[in-house]
Design brief:
Shape: globular
Largest sheet: 5 strands, parallel
Low-confidence stretches: none
CATH topology: Rossmann fold
Radius of gyration: 14 Å
Mean pLDDT: 87
Distance between the termini: 11 Å
CATH class: Alpha Beta
Number of strands: 5
Structural class: alpha/beta
Order of helices and strands: EHEHEHEHEH
Number of helices: 5
CATH architecture: 3-Layer(aba) Sandwich
Number of domains: 1
């Protein structure tokens, strides 16, 4: 499964720029939409008919944390089966608990080395096995 339409929900502009550069380094045809507000992101998802193939979600966000976002996301018809990757610089127990609670959610720790970022994103985005469905 190669994901071609990605939604990144992250309020850190440096992280979003690095994410975009990393993905572009291995596939410039992938479309990345960025939302820096989880509440606005959910509102837009409710109003659209063109859903992303996969969502990368920063856990620590203003207004809604990753857990709250996931609970609300899974209530939206058509979005229940979209793969979600918790993408966070922290690897605390709260994040791991969320990933365990939502069995179809994968956790990916943000890396500091650009090559590591590219490799970890590529392994998910270009994977032959879908995260969930």
């Amino acid at each position: 499964m190669q994901y071609k339409n990605i939604l990144l929900v992250d309020d850190d502009t440096d992280d979003t720029e690095i994410f975009q550069m990393a993905v572009a380094s291995f596939d410039s045809n992938i479309k990345i939409s960025i939302e820096n507000n989880a509440l606005k992101s959910l509102k837009k998802l409710k109003e659209t008919t063109k859903f992303p193939d996969i969502i990368f979600l920063d856990y620590y966000m203003p207004y809604l944390d990753g857990s709250e976002f996931l609970k609300l996301l899974r209530e939206i018809k058509g979005l229940k089966k979209i793969p979600v990757v918790l993408y966070s610089g922290q690897a605390g127990s709260a994040i791991k608990d969320v990933a365990a609670t939502f069995k179809d959610v994968k956790f990916l720790k943000k890396k500091s080395d650009f090559r590591d970022i590219v490799d970890s994103l590529k392994s998910i985005i270009k994977s032959e096995t879908p995260i969930s469905k």
